[in-house]
Request: fold
Amino acid sequence: MKLRFRVLPGRAALVIMALLCVVVTIPGTARADNPIVQTIYTADPAPLVHNGRVYLYTGHDEDGSTYFTMKEWRVWSSADLVNWTDHGSPMSVATFSWASADAWAGQAVERNGKFYWYVPVKDRASGQMAIGVGVSDSPTGPFRDAIGRPLVRNGEIDPTVFIDDNGQAYLYWGNPNLWYVRLNADMISYSGSPTQIPLTTAGFGTRTGNASRPTLYEEGPWVYKRNGLYYNVFAAKCCSEFIGYSTAPGPTGPWTYRGTVMPTQGSSFTNHPGVIDFNGGSYFFYHNGALPGGGGYTRSVAVEKFAYNADGTIPTINMTTTGAPQVGTLNPFVRQEAETIAWESGVETEPAGEGGMNIGWIENGDYVKVKGVAFGSGARSFSARVASASSGGRIELRLDGANGTLVGTCTVPGTGGWQTWTTVTCPVNGATGTHDLYFRYAGGSGYLFNVNWWQFTS
Ligand code: FUB
Reply:
């Protein structure tokens, strides 16, 4: 994310520049890995485990937003929960011809090889919020409108979908109420009518000071089943929200309020839960306002690892800047996408002419960190797919810090265009064992070059 100082009043710009000096440009400082994404603001995380990867579906808060101004959704994926690959935006408000705005909090699920992404959007005709459903053959899309109209429409938001062991799927959603309906096996139609889940204080806790909302339930339900127990984790109270949860013996209740998952923290007055088990661990996704310029309408998704208590209750989870530990290591000897990032400073991403995404808007001193790279007995050379409409620059390969040990430098020439790609190769010395790898970009002024992918040889 490039902060655009020129649109800010002088004092605000100075404060952010001062923060950047402290937070972003301290030479050699080890980087924290929350928030997960630094290239844009993201919100409303919805993780999905599929074929050994975690796919993360998010909303996108526009830079400088002063409301939930959200036009598109985004997809990211990771095999290790620290290095996240940007898959761009495979679904937007425009995907739904009947929708006019508000790409808000949704969830994607897989069934029979198809991926269904349930999202709230504003129905143009009625002006009401409605739930649409996108479908794709791939977790990264592109998604198309599955039915050409709202699946349900009652002015309420934030769908979550859960498929029970017997194959019955349920769609839950709602703010201020909480609804469910039984989805048919096709996942794009339902049986029966939308039904309200009674919001009792026994089921969802007691809120004081708001006569129209006597329980803590606010929005953003996330329903799942674990060891025979049904969980509904939700954004509670407003505002600011915290994350609470209830459990039930069945998918439609009766629900019992169980307490706090994540206290009110993190400079955003909303929060939004997403819970998965992956590779033997349990992970809690949420959002906050932790990036520079972040706040209630410029949010960022983050993740923490946690362990259920022996009785199935969820411990209190706090927001951290370190995030979840890495699952395994990253293999540098297979092609890796340049947009696979643990942390970055100064770069952005865009769709690449060759397919997938590339990183760009790279200036002198920007860097990308890739965490836990297993060089083993050593790397001999490095190749990168690059393009430059200017005169190029250099990719410095450094270990364990943006100013860490230099193990190679690759020169990038001008190629005649930002999408005119060539492959550059350079020797590598001293890269053995497992390290955080920093690509530090160097050159003259202005934008230097784009990178599509990279690979080391052993
Ligand atoms: O992101 C827009 C809205 O804010 C979501 O639908 C709510 O859950 C809250 O996070």
